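To: structure subgroup
Subject: Chain for Friday's discussion

All,

I'm putting the inputs and outputs inline so they're searchable in the archive.
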Amino acid sequence: MTKEKPQGLETLSIHAGGGPDPATGARTIPVHQSTAFVFEDAEHGADLFALRKSGFVYSRLTNPTVHALEEKMAALEGGVATSCTSSGHAAQLLVMSALLSPGDHVLSSCKLYGGSLTQFAQIFPDCFGWDSTPFNPDKADEARAALKPNTKAIFVESLSNPEGVVADLDGLAALAEEAGIPLIVDNTMATPALCKPLEHGAHVVTYSTTKFMSGHGNAMGGAVVDGGNFDWAKYADKFPRLAKENPTYHGLVFTEAFGPAALAMHNHAVGLRDLGMNQQPMNAYLTFVGMETLQLRMDKHCENALAVAAYLEGHDKVESVSYAGLKSSPHHTNAQKYMKGQGGAVFTFNVKGGHDEAATVVSSARLFSHVANIGDTRSLIIHPSSTTHSQLDEDGKKAAGAAPNTIRVSIGIETLDDIIGDLEQALRTA
C-alpha cells in the first residue's frame, strides 16, 4: 500500500480544521456565538464533565469555531492538539501553569518581546513564584550554564521580537532532552511558513495569533500547540499535574487517559476551566480565515523586508540593521538552518542620531502606521525603547535589542517602492 504524501502548507492552511457545514452545506466555518451547548441527556452531560467523552460544554472550555482553529494550528505545526487562548501572553501563562509549581525555575531567552520579558522577570515570580534566568537564545552553552535542579522548561522565540535573533533550536532541544525538560518555542514571528520548531526537537509551540497567523490586525488571540513528543510520565515527579492523579477529576491521570495529548487536554480541562483565558469565537473565525493566505502573505512580507533591509543597510543616516535575512547578519547562518534562509518581516535598525532622531523618523512616517502591533498586512513602525520595551532598565533594553536609537519595523505587503519611499522621506525629515 502506497503511503499518502503529506499535504503542503498552502493546502493545510486552507483545508485543515474545517469542511462544508454538515447541516447547511456552507463552505466556510460558522461563528458559533454561543456560551453553552445542549447535552443529549443527563448521562451525556456527566460524561463530558468527567472527560469520559469529548464534546462541547461551555465556550470557556470548548467552542466549535475555536476548535476548528485549534485543528488548523495543530495541522500546520505538526502537533497532536492545540489550545487557543485570548492572547499570546495568555498562552504563555496557560502552558506554564500546567508545568510549574511555586519555587520552580525556567530558562527564558533575553531576546523576547518586552511584555514577555516583564512577564517572566516580574509577574511570574511575584504572582506565581516561578523564577527565571535569561540567556542568549543563539548560545545553547549559555543556557546550559544557567540550568538549575529545579529548572522545568526552556522558553525562546524562534525569531525574536524586535531584533530578529534566530534561536539555536537544535542546540536547545539537545539540552532540553539531556535535562529532561520541555523546550517551548514561541513561533509568532516566524510562523510555520518559515519554521516548524517541532521538527527541530521542540516539544511545545506557542503563538500570539494576533500577529501573522491572523495577518490583518483585526483579531486578538494566542495558542499552545502540544507536540505530543515529550514523555511527561517518565518525569512524573517534575510534572505532577500531567503525570499524577488530579484531585479535581477524581484521581484521573492525564498521561494515562490522553497519552501524547496530555498537555493539550490539561490546558483545556484545567487551565481554561480555572484561569479562563479562552479565545472568542469571532476572533477565532477571523484568524481561521486569515490563515488561508498565510504562505502567500509571508512570502511577500519576507520579499519586501529583505529589500527594505538592504536599502536601509546602505543609507547614510542608518548606523546598523538587524535582519537575519541579510548575508552580513551574524544570525544569517541560523536563518539558513531554521528559517528557510528568511529573516521574517519584523526587524530593527539603528539611526545615527540617537533617541530624538529615532523618534522623529517614527513620527514622520506616513504610509507606515505607528502602532504597537506586528504582523499586519500594513507596514508598521515603532520606537521600542519608549514603548514596547519601556518598562525595562537600560541594560535590559540593550540586551533585548531596544537601544534609544533603535526603530522596529514590521514590513507589510504593499508595493515595495511605496514602502521604501516612505522610509526615505521619514529619514530625510529627521
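Points worth raising on Friday:
The two ends are 66 Å apart (CA to CA).
The mean pLDDT is 96.

D.
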